[in-house]
Specification:
Structural class: mainly alpha
Shape: globular
Number of helices: 6
Distance between the termini: 25 Å
Number of strands: 0
Bound molecules: fe (ii) ion
CATH class: Mainly Alpha
Order of helices and strands: HHHHHH
Largest sheet: none
Number of domains: 1
Length: 183
């Protein structure tokens, strides 16, 4: 498929692989870098989940008969992940607790991604035409690009040791607002 014409499901699967690779690094990340790593994980997950909630699940509910129960269950899992991130936000002073929380989060997020790949994406794909899948793919990419990024902890105006973790709920709201403005 030529660049720029990838459909939604291909983009989602590629995104899942990126998140999976990022989460695999939790074991090899040094304690001194764990807060910075957590910021990256939080940003990636929030961006991906909000884009799914704005683009994927509305199309899934619209196109697939009887999809609501599955959509509600998957969105509830995403909300749980956001709550877990919010709890971890408060553990920046305890690298060991942050790491073990991230390991637990990884298990839940990967199980959720498998359920999406098995229960959501194939049904969405079989009930949606090629053109619409490509249009949804464009909207999904636009949504991801519109999300504001969290300041990098090592940016010049924010030296190491001066990392401020904002509330996850506020990050979710900012990502959601930016995506809505872009759509
Ligand atoms: Fe996903």
């Amino acid at each position: 498929m030529p660049a720029g014409t990838e459909d939604l499901v291909a983009l989602l699967k590629a995104d899942h692989k990126t998140v999976e690779a990022l989460l695999a690094a939790v074991d090899s990340t040094a304690e001194s870098a764990i807060v910075e790593y957590f910021c990256k994980v939080r940003e990636e997950l929030v961006r991906h989940e909000v884009a799914e909630e704005l683009v994927v699940y509305p199309a899934f509910r619209r196109n697939v008969p009887g999809a609501d129960a599955v959509a509600d269950a998957r969105i509830a899992e995403q909300s749980e992940a956001e709550e877990a991130l919010a709890r971890l936000d408060k553990q920046e002073d305890d690298p060991a607790a942050l790491r073990s929380g991230l390991v637990k989060l990884r298990g839940n997020v990967l199980a959720h991604a498998i359920r999406e790949e098995q229960e959501v994406f194939p049904l969405l794909e079989s009930h949606t035409g090629t053109e619409e899948l490509q249009e949804l793919g464009r909207r999904y990419e636009k949504a991801l690009a519109a999300a504001p990024t969290h300041p990098h902890p090592h940016a010049p105006d924010s030296p190491p040791g001066n990392i401020v973790l904002g509330p996850v709920a506020a990050l979710v709201d900012r990502v959601r607002d930016a995506m809505k403005r872009s759509s």
